[in-house]
């Protein structure tokens, strides 16, 4: 199968184009260097299936960052039949250097000038034909966001693909001494084919920045925006959640219970009280999770995350981290795994490890499900949002305390240089792709962990067969009793201990397994928890859930990214110890004060 | 107008907000110099200080059409000529 490599600098809309062409689910980000994994998609082009590979955005083919090395090694070992080079037309005068570098490699190339519409607004006029003539390669103006110019460029790609790749030059490692030559070429092409005003002023971005990056107001505005986003998620999400809950309950009562009536008691118990209750309780959170990721995607795609890095860098520097670590912490609120992988943009190993040590404290969407459920069950509707907000503060506090404690061990002098792209509106298409991606991600996790988890919990709470379900005579009861001395001092009962044990695999299982343990789902489960626990116990349980190891995927990612068993073990043990210590201080403190 | 006028060895970090200067030298290590060059930082190019973050945080500069933030410690390694 023929291979097409997508190449370009960060923030050129390369990922958007990739998504548009493949219809796939690549993440789109306005954050430089976020597409660090190689995404591939197969498409039908001119009657043949071809493979499209989205390479990381790079500034310089002769550079030394991880991404630049990835691209070089990829090109070296998998010479593509065609390179599609995407350039940001609004930044054409500096992006041309990469194109000319690639041209020297004798790659078979098609050039796409993206954001042609935006460039026009800046007053940049580009004579595509003239440029194609000067460079000796096909050049097309497109808008990856709105799909303009796509049919023509796909035709050009199909056509270029018919010609065989000329021999790949071995002089890949030629040093940047050739810059002088490249600069001359740039001047020649720019001088005769492109007109750029002396200094660009994108007034809208400047006006927004003067408010959002205001010396004193910038940070309060940032936290205000975050707070409003979370409020909006719950305001919109809770009615949806109630609706899903009600329809799943209806399905059980009207359809499933009669359908299972003929089955043996144990089997209908496993199907209804085990799998269905467990999965249904978790599935009710899907609307909130989708909303959450949609809002995160909007923040990410607008370019505001780089501004957050700018605002927070001075504070992060005091913790031995930098603005990018802060952005990764924010990304971790969605899911810790991509946030951990995002640290690849950091070159200093110490900085990377310290960032990877603090990211798992980010209150991810899976933990959010647990907290939404418990706060709804144990706190008044007025107090619940505040309780939830306090957990976000604890999440930051755990990350800050960890960084401060260990910054000496992970000292680094990594330079911090980051591009601030202009603000952009994310399109409906991008947001739809993102929402769909999260639904499929959830379903994948559901099939991998949640069903297996709730079945295992059901077995543990129903075996041996002689014991009354969920009683202290079952395997789960025995396990809970055995671990009880460890969890009693932090106010966590035996049933919750079992849930925590399974939460080690994935936090989505926690509420699902409570549903199985108590044999109840939805509101009934909330009611039972509300009767059995007081708020001090519940809060201690939530603190422990927040701080201890997020899930097996996170541990696997920590191991993969750090390539160190020692570091992974350290991160694991530290989070468990911190979780226990914080819960202990909170629980004993609150009891000591008479609560 | 200040004492830095026509001084070709002023560090970028010392400029006030709104100043436009010309890059004369980049004293960082090779890897960072390449990255800065790729972002458009080249000798003879004009550079404008857009804003500085509080608490000695990063500075936002504009080179050509590109806005970049960098820490003061990095900005100190970039020499510029003012006026």
Detail the topology: elements first, then pairings.
The complex is a heterodimer of chains A (595) and B (83).
Chain A (H helix, E strand, L loop, with lengths): L1 E7 L5 H9 L16 E7 L2 E7 L11 H12 L4 E7 L3 H13 L4 E6 L1 H7 L2 E2 L1 H8 L3 E3 L8 H12 L17 H15 E2 L7 H10 L5 H42 L5 H19 L2 H17 L1 H15 L4 H10 L3 H7 L6 H10 L6 H14 L4 H24 L10 E3 L8 H35 L12 H13 L6 H10 L4 H11 L3 H11 L2 H13 L4 H11 L2 H28 L3
Parallel strand pairs in A: 1-3, 1-4, 4-5, 5-7
Antiparallel strand pairs in A: 2-3, 6-8
Chain B lengths: L9 E2 L8 E7 L3 H9 L7 E7 L6 E5 L2 E5 L1 H4 L2 E5 L1
Antiparallel strand pairs in B: 1-6, 2-3, 2-6, 3-4, 4-5
Explain this structure to me?
The complex is a heterodimer of chains A (595) and B (83). Helix content of chain A is 63%, strand content 7%. With 595 residues, chain A is α/β, with parallel strands linked by helices. Chain A has two domains: 2-195, P-loop containing nucleotide triphosphate hydrolases (Rossmann fold); 220-417 and 430-592, no CATH class. In chain A, the strands form two sheets. Chain A has a six-stranded mixed beta sheet with strand order 2-3-1-4-5-7, sandwiched between helices. In chain A, strands 6-8 form a two-stranded antiparallel ribbon. In chain A, strand 2 (39-45) and strand 3 (48-54) form a beta hairpin. In chain A, helix 3 (92-104) crosses helix 7 (179-193) and helix 10 runs antiparallel to helix 18. The model of chain A is unreliable at 25-36 and 167-177 (pLDDT under 50). Chain B is of the alpha+beta class. The radius of gyration of chain B is 12 Å and the shape is globular. Chain B starts with 9 loop residues before the first strand and ends with a strand. The model of chain B has no long low-confidence stretch (mean pLDDT 86).
